[in-house]
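FW: tagging you since you asked about this chain on Friday. Here's the raw sequence from the shared folder, copied in full. Didn't touch anything.
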Amino acid sequence: MVELDFSPIPVTGISIAEAAERSGVSVHTLRYYERAGLVITTIDRNHAGRRRYRQVDLDWICMCTRLRATGMPIKTIRRYAELVAAGHGNERDRLALMEEHRLEVLAKMAELQDNLALIDRKIGVYRGRLEAGDADLLWAPGA
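HL: got it, structure written out here
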């Protein structure tokens, strides 16, 4: 896990490289998020046209990264970003989007728990057979 930098961001913002380092995502990902319409603010640029990220930008990137980590599709994150960027008046839509995604995450977690239970059973079988000294009786393809 990447250790994130939470030191204050200067008023002038930080470079894309520093934003990548602080957020734990690549420069490529930051550019992609912007191109894909996932960013809710306009990223500031300096006099040379280079991106300058503010705290609000990093906070939003963290949100997008977390949503992606839960399996939320880019299309859904984009829809959520559009709702947030539109401002007040669509909170029920945002809530519905999050509640639907929560149900999907819970279903994935239940599936992972079932898969983990299978792995735990197999570990128990292997440990038991190794302790009993008859692991060679375990099923193996072609045996």
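FW: The longest strand covers residues 44-45.
HL: agreed, and The two ends are 41 Å apart (CA to CA).
FW: great, closing this out.
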